Amino acid sequence: MIATAHIVDNSADTLIARFHSRRQYSLALAEPLTSEDMQLQSMPDASPTKWHLAHTTWFFEQFILLPFVEDYQSPQPQFNYLFNSYYEQKGERYPRAQRGMISRPGIEDVYAYRQQIDSAIEQLLTTNTSDELVSLIELGINHEMQHQELLLTDILHAFSLNPLYPAAFNTKSGITELSADHQSASEQFIRFDAGLHQFGVAPQTDFYFDCEGPKHKAYVSQFALAKGLVTNADWLLFIEAGGYQNPVLWLADGWAVAQQEGWQCPLYWRKQGDAWYQFTLNGLVPLALNAPVSHISYYEADAYAQWKGCRLPTEYEWELAAREQAISGNFSEKQIFSPMPCAEQGVMQLYGDVWEWTRSPYTPYPGYKAPEGAVGEYNGKFMSGQYVLRGGSCVTPIEQMRSTYRTFFYPHQRWQFMGLRLAKDC
Amino acid sequence: MIATAHIVDNSADTLIARFHSRRQYSLALAEPLTSEDMQLQSMPDASPTKWHLAHTTWFFEQFILLPFVEDYQSPQPQFNYLFNSYYEQKGERYPRAQRGMISRPGIEDVYAYRQQIDSAIEQLLTTNTSDELVSLIELGINHEMQHQELLLTDILHAFSLNPLYPAAFNTKSGITELSADHQSASEQFIRFDAGLHQFGVAPQTDFYFDCEGPKHKAYVSQFALAKGLVTNADWLLFIEAGGYQNPVLWLADGWAVAQQEGWQCPLYWRKQGDAWYQFTLNGLVPLALNAPVSHISYYEADAYAQWKGCRLPTEYEWELAAREQAISGNFSEKQIFSPMPCAEQGVMQLYGDVWEWTRSPYTPYPGYKAPEGAVGEYNGKFMSGQYVLRGGSCVTPIEQMRSTYRTFFYPHQRWQFMGLRLAKDC
Amino acid sequence: MIATAHIVDNSADTLIARFHSRRQYSLALAEPLTSEDMQLQSMPDASPTKWHLAHTTWFFEQFILLPFVEDYQSPQPQFNYLFNSYYEQKGERYPRAQRGMISRPGIEDVYAYRQQIDSAIEQLLTTNTSDELVSLIELGINHEMQHQELLLTDILHAFSLNPLYPAAFNTKSGITELSADHQSASEQFIRFDAGLHQFGVAPQTDFYFDCEGPKHKAYVSQFALAKGLVTNADWLLFIEAGGYQNPVLWLADGWAVAQQEGWQCPLYWRKQGDAWYQFTLNGLVPLALNAPVSHISYYEADAYAQWKGCRLPTEYEWELAAREQAISGNFSEKQIFSPMPCAEQGVMQLYGDVWEWTRSPYTPYPGYKAPEGAVGEYNGKFMSGQYVLRGGSCVTPIEQMRSTYRTFFYPHQRWQFMGLRLAKDC
Amino acid sequence: MIATAHIVDNSADTLIARFHSRRQYSLALAEPLTSEDMQLQSMPDASPTKWHLAHTTWFFEQFILLPFVEDYQSPQPQFNYLFNSYYEQKGERYPRAQRGMISRPGIEDVYAYRQQIDSAIEQLLTTNTSDELVSLIELGINHEMQHQELLLTDILHAFSLNPLYPAAFNTKSGITELSADHQSASEQFIRFDAGLHQFGVAPQTDFYFDCEGPKHKAYVSQFALAKGLVTNADWLLFIEAGGYQNPVLWLADGWAVAQQEGWQCPLYWRKQGDAWYQFTLNGLVPLALNAPVSHISYYEADAYAQWKGCRLPTEYEWELAAREQAISGNFSEKQIFSPMPCAEQGVMQLYGDVWEWTRSPYTPYPGYKAPEGAVGEYNGKFMSGQYVLRGGSCVTPIEQMRSTYRTFFYPHQRWQFMGLRLAKDC
Ligand SMILES: [Fe+3]
Ligand SMILES: [Fe+3]
Ligand SMILES: [Fe+3]
Ligand SMILES: [Fe+3]
User: Fold this and answer.
1) Same domain, B155 and B193
2) B152/B194 same-domain check
3) Sheet arrangement for strand B283-286
4) Chosen from B381, B408, B409, B424 to mutate, greatest number of chain C CBs within 10 A
5) Is A94 part of a structural domain of the chain?
6) What percent of chain C is predicted at pLDDT more than 70?
7) How far is the CA of A114 from the centre of ligand 2 (A)?
8) Rounded CA gap, B59 and B376, in Å?
9) How far does A154 lie from chain D, in Å, by closest CA?
10) B315 shares its domain with B421
11) Helix (H), strand (E), coil (C) string for chain D
12) In Å, how far is A291's CA from the nearest CA of chain B?
């Protein structure tokens, strides 16, 4: 099994309620979008809203209804080809880069498909709450949460190509200008001792993804971690210091990409005259100087750290700092959908606001084995060329977050809410 | 002026009626499409339906309202950036390849824009029917017709990428199987004498595009032209004879493209088991053997002609044959939207069904000068690298057709309704 | 037959002498080059010197020895794969873009191969001077001349990538600075009457390539042709007038290429401080202001003509002006290898100095049929997408030149010695 | 300092002798090559032999003569531009992908340059043997060794594109066919206990590269390592089992590359009829079944391990096994230049034959800081996207090898002598 759920109350009713609530949240996020918005695919990395809504449904159908319902007949057999993302063991797939070409089924057809599958799942759960089934429901719910985040980052990217700067949402903005006595906490360091620690979650705990385990030991040298995230104001100083023009600060691969793509600032920054703006899910807004910088690549994060004579933390370092803290912060449910400033004691904003790039490549933990079957393709086959990010962002559902959660992206990617925190040896 | 209109009845009422009728036809063609369909851009050469509907409106606004209405204020000033196609003299443009990314304005906004502009045009025409204005209205109407054709060829291309084979229309199919005693007329030749002829239209005639003139003399050697178009049945023989595997038949550039793209048949043919089908605006249908072959590149047409020991006609040869004939045939108004078989006396199907590739590169006629101003960018700047096609197709409005009409495409392009007729020296 | 030779004195001795002399000239051109120079292939369009020397030899072997010598055994059977350029009917070929990867055979092996084949040809000619054989020898000699030109243009391109600016030759430079009272003749026009003319050479004349015939009639409208070629001084004015920044002057395809490639001046111009230099086969030299501009694309030539309110001549117009003139000028044998200024009566420099872009796409003349067999691939299969240039250049052997000679290149290509002459309607 | 040398005998004479001997070895490796061979650059990753000979010389000039010789005047100032590889702090560089375009300086000029610099180094060493200088000489010697390896792998790649299969060397082949009772040792595992170990070398040891340090602790779980390398015979079974056709075995990135590149076997395997051959520095030879497989990517190595239910070792695991062993094996000095079979006690062939892919991304060790100055660009800026390989190969100088040596390549690269050893958890 890819995941094991240790759910305190796994009565059918509770599970069905959680299932419907989580499924409903996807629809809520899509609610302000038009059918034309939901059709957009702005790059191969991103997918249309409509596709997300259909694919998460397909996931429940393929991984639960198909194996658990006897003689299961799909209401939409053709959808297996259209909405399989990357599971080789589930058969041929529609080319990823063309997902934006599927105008039919229309969004109404996809809503109907969701209802059909949701009803079937509910019916199944009234008769079967085996551990295996509950675990897979849990997996489907976590999968749905991941796509709820992608739905938002993907529509942000699509809208960013529209010169009319459409706003997907119109929620509280809450972002303030930089006060005169402002001091960034991004260079206030907190020290941690060296030690041999245990990492990776145990089988008896709550739900986790296979890549978060198994439990294993690792030695971590003494290090220091910054109290605060690097902010937009910090980043402006990097720009003004010529950070984007100085190859000596950059990894060789990063410099090559930066030159080829013409990077001069984070992905959604826009300069109009002398003023900086940022494109957000609330449209184009003045750059919030004291908010964490976001939408930067690993390469940019690493160059910034070089410039500061620091480095990025490893994922173990991050986890050591995070695992004692309560999980709260600026997550999706706050409906701000932009990183926000913060002022607290201790290491701040480990959770929420922005995913934090670590310097740890996404590799298997000692003893890791991908599960058997198609579900084994969920994580294992992506363990090359990517880096781990930790902590979740302002568009991540809070329920999904835990100190062991590893997300992963390529070092050139910028369309997620990605930021950084400095670390250093000491 | 790009064009001169010699309109018998250019009373305001008549012109307004023609204008509205032509504008209405664009909406009628889009009627069976959903807002998601109208969002699709399946390749840089093609445009979304919504874009066509907005761009043709922009054309009237920019080339007529802006110069003729005093202190003209656009209801949508941002649309100039979004819906300018390629007129450098009209300012910066949104990148062509990203037209499918514009979900907002939505289709309802575009419909509203059309109404606003149409009302303004109607109002203008009630007070001004100067020759210059009438000529520009005429140009706008002809421009609208060109995009009515593109709207259909572009949605056909987009739908062809959908494995569910959606049908845009459900009109009469009318296409029959090949009868046992069938004889293709594609190798029955009709001879024409050599002679010095006049080509190009005169300033005092009806509307024409600048590239159709000026009137000039050209000498045409003796030649023969096939009675019939090459049919799907003919093309099957080419495939079976290994035409797509034999480089000796092909132009060097054509062979290179064919290998790179993996061409093995016309663009929309699909083989299922042993049977050939064709994807059409009515969905996937069995291949109509006696219908003209369509959706082939210049390179394929040339290779076919080589295989037959023939050649493609020049545009002058085609025009000599066509200019004595009445203009009728399978055009857009028949609402078949697929090439059809035909049986007649003389050279058949010169008009309608499929555009016919000629071996004439699209070059300026002797004495040609592009008009002054942005309107001069309509045709002249495209006079390199393309070939002339003649006669119109099953998705061309018949009003647009005349014996001097030159359309032009790159030799590798296949998404228009393009076919061929053989010619030879004699 | 691709070509027919009407040679006055085709005695074996004379033919052998001509053959050896022409073959020897290739070696003479390569003489100043090192074995490393001769290895270079700087782009897929160009070939290494060593490859030219081997390929022209292969041509004699394949088209003459193989068919005419009984039981012919090649001394180097593997060379057919390596040195076939593009003849599909001669079998598989080594990939064109990798010609620079063939370090073995070394240049000494290629010299030995040349000697082997030359001896065999000489021996064959002592026993056989049939018309067919003589025609093919003539074809081989003309083929050798074409590659003598390419050998020079290709090494110039390769050397242009070397920041040390190597000089292949050290011959007289002869190029003067622009005098104070200088007047370009590029806008002095000479008028020609309209008329129906005969073009294309007859079968009973001297050697010609198949694409120069057959003889046919064409009507040419009244036109005017400039006395002089456009000079470097003229071109500087185009640059200073913002010619490279103004899309309105350019063909749409040309503007796209110019932006993508970042064109700001002719291919081999280099600016150092405020001064312009040109890289030549004699190294980097100050720009010769009164010499004809060279190494410009069709797109640039067309934009220049647009800027001047003129156009490029058609190939018929050029031929009408040229066919009364004696063939002399700055050709390869002068060993200057750079375009030179000129002052004469009448239309000047029609021959030599630079190939002149015409506005005529390279298409078959009426009645053209490619010859049977591999020799038919010499010209016919390239008749799409290219433009005709006329008149030869400073690296063309003069023997090759005639008023009907058509060379052809793609409109974006610049590495040949390509210039322009203005024309206009009148 | 990038490296520290603890050289027992660093008398001037001994150091000069070592210097000359190492420099001479480069010339010896190039000796069988022609000047044309030495010009070849077959892909951007590879460089011409001539470039390697010049660049290693440039390294001594820039990192030693320039800082240590007062008022140093380069005999070839232009070579800094031509032969700088990637040191941003040394100024602009000639584009890497065009190194094969530099025919001048010729090879004789490069030989002369080597002599000039070598004499200057010798002269400098007679007057200065400061620790800093000796360390840099040591660095230069190690750099020379790295390029001695690249010189061989790069010419092998270049020759592999020549259909005549040239042999660079003609040394003993020594490779036998697979005997009937053969048993591969690639699945005989030896177990290692878990433990907290120290890795990374200390400042007081012999020469090492910066990336090999600093000394640090890491915990290694219990594991097992295969006694033998995976052999060609083993790999044939992988091919026959459909390993190249089964996406389930592959990393997602690996499968994408394999499909795009059409991988069906290791880089230099060639099938002729039913028999497998391998292209080597001795030309095309029958595949040696009991020799280690070579020229496979990380992706292929990982897929093979998946197929076997195993995994690749980490670099720590490899190092634990290797650091107790004496350093001997099939290295460059044996002049075999191909991987060979082996039969020994214990874990075999940890050193020599083929570099062994580890599953460890090339990342900085805890506490790593790149040195100041241009020398700091040697390793640190490449620490993203690459994997560590360990142990050296049949073209690595033995002097270079040590248990802590980390080389690194991208997971898609195959042109080095790269093989694999299985590992597993236990
Ligand atoms: Fe998914
Ligand atoms: Fe238009
Ligand atoms: Fe040739
Ligand atoms: Fe180096």
Assistant:
1) no
2) no
3) B269-272, B275-280, B283-286
4) B381
5) yes
6) 94
7) 41
8) 14
9) 22
10) yes
11) CCCCCCCCCCCHHHHHHHHHHHHHHHHHHHCCCCCCHHHCCCCCCCCCHHHHHHHHHHHHHHHHHHHHCCCCCCCCCCHHHHHCCCCHHHCCCCCHHHHHHCCCCCHHHHHHHHHHHHHHHHHHHCCCCCHHHHHHHHHHHHHHHHHHHHHHHHHHHHHHCCCCCCCCCCCCCCCCCCCCCCCCCCCCEEEECCEEEEECCCCCCCCCCHHHCCCEEEEECCEEEECCCCEHHHHHHHHHCCHHHCHHHCCHHHHHHHHHHCCCCCCCEEEECCEEEEEECCEEEECCCCCECCCCCHHHHHHHHHHCCCECCCHHHHHHHHCCCCCCCCCHHHCCCCCCCCCCCCCCCCCCCCEEEEEEECCCCCCCCCCCCHHHHCCHHHCCCCEEEECCCCCCCHHHCCCCCCEEECCCCCCCCEECCCEEEC
12) 29
Decide: C and D in contact? Rule: 3+ Cβ pairs under 8 Å.
yes
Nearest to D36 among C82, C98, C103 (CB): C103
Chains in contact with C via at least 3 Cβ–Cβ pairs below 8 Å: B, D
Domain shared by B104 and B45, yes or no = yes
Residue C19 clears pLDDT 80, i.e. is over it:
yes
**Domain assignment present for C165:** no
For B240-265, write each residue's pLDDT tens digit: 999 999 999 999 999 999 999 999 99
* D247 contacts on A by Cβ (under 8 Å): 88
Q: Has residue A80 been placed in a domain?
A: yes
Within 13 A of C202's CA, how many CA atoms are on the CB side?
Answer: 4
The size of the B-C interface in CB pairs under 8 A is 76
From the CA of C143, how far away is ligand 3's center (Å)?
6
Task: Give me the number of domains chain A comprises.
Answer: 2
Under a CB-based contact definition with an 8 Å cutoff, are residues A285 and A173 in contact?
yes
CA-to-CA dists, residue B193 to A24, B305, C60, angstroms: 76, 21, 43
Q: Print the domain residue range for C334.
A: 189-425
Say whether the A–D interface has 3 or more Cβ pairs within 8 Å: yes
Asked if the structure places residue C170 within a domain, the reply is: no
**ipTM summary value:** 0.95
Q: How far apart are CA B260 and CA B256, in angstroms?
A: 6
Same domain, A264 and A336: yes
Q: Is D117 exposed, middle or buried (0-12, 13-18, 19+ CB in 10 A)?
A: buried
d(Cα C101, Cα B33) in Å, to the nearest integer? 55
Mean pLDDT by 10 residues, chain A (426 residues): 47 93 98 98 98 98 97 97 94 96 98 98 94 95 98 98 95 61 89 96 79 96 98 97 98 98 98 95 94 97 98 98 94 95 91 98 96 91 97 97 97 98 96
One domain, residues C152 and C196: no
Does one domain contain both D273 and D153? Answer: no
Rounded Cα distance between B146 and B137, Å, is: 14
Tell me the C-alpha distance between A5 and D397, whole Å: 54
Domain end among C160, C180, C197: C160
> Which of B42, B103, B159, B165 to probe by mutation at the A interface, max A CB count within 10 Å?
B103
> Could you tell me the two tokens for B220?
């045409």
Q: What is the CATH number of the domain that holds C386?
A: 3.90.1580.10
Select the residue of C35, C50, C104 nearest D164 (Cβ to Cβ): C104
- Closest residue in chain B to residue C197, using alpha carbons only: B219
B348 shares its domain with B279? yes
User: C268-308: per-residue pLDDT in tens?
Assistant: 999 999 999 999 999 999 999 999 999 999 999 999 999 99
Query: Which ligand places an atom closest to the C-alpha of D375?
Result: 4
pTM of the model: 0.95
